[in-house]
């Protein structure tokens, strides 16, 4: 089980990304628009830099929904390999068959 603080920090980041996504998208579009004058593009970059760092989508860490583990995460199931194996062995994941030979 991951530390509770790490899990909660990631949840706060997800909320911040959702809150600032429209503003960040608008400022990035203005900063990258070559038809605008250089001053407007520069001010857009400055305003973008003033936004909280944790509002950037790249700072979100994929974590297991069951255990909060950050590594060996499968996107399809939204869980780590360990939780996937445990739940699959118990037969709690439909369509998943644990192989044995």
- Strand percentage, roughly? under 5%
**Number of structural units classed as domains:** 2
* Low-confidence region ranges: none
Shape, principal axes of CA atoms? elongated
The CATH architecture designation of the largest domain is Orthogonal Bundle
User: What's the Cα radius of gyration?
Assistant: 20 Å
The major β-sheet equals: 2 strands, antiparallel
Number of helices: 3
Structural category is mainly alpha
Helix content: 40-55%
Q: What pattern of helices and strands is seen along the backbone? A: HHEEH
First-last Cα distance: 30 Å
Assigned CATH class of the largest domain: Mainly Alpha
How many β-strands, per DSSP?
2
Strand order of the largest sheet: 1-2
Q: Mean pLDDT, nearest integer?
A: 93
- What is the fold-level CATH name, i.e. the topology of the largest domain? Helix Hairpins
InterPro entries: Ribosomal_uS14 (IPR001209), Ribosomal_uS14_bac/plastid (IPR023036), Ribosomal_uS14_CS (IPR018271)
Subunit structure: Part of the 30S ribosomal subunit. Contacts proteins S3 and S10.
Protein name: Small ribosomal subunit protein uS14
Function: Binds 16S rRNA, required for the assembly of 30S particles and may also be responsible for determining the conformation of the 16S rRNA at the A site.
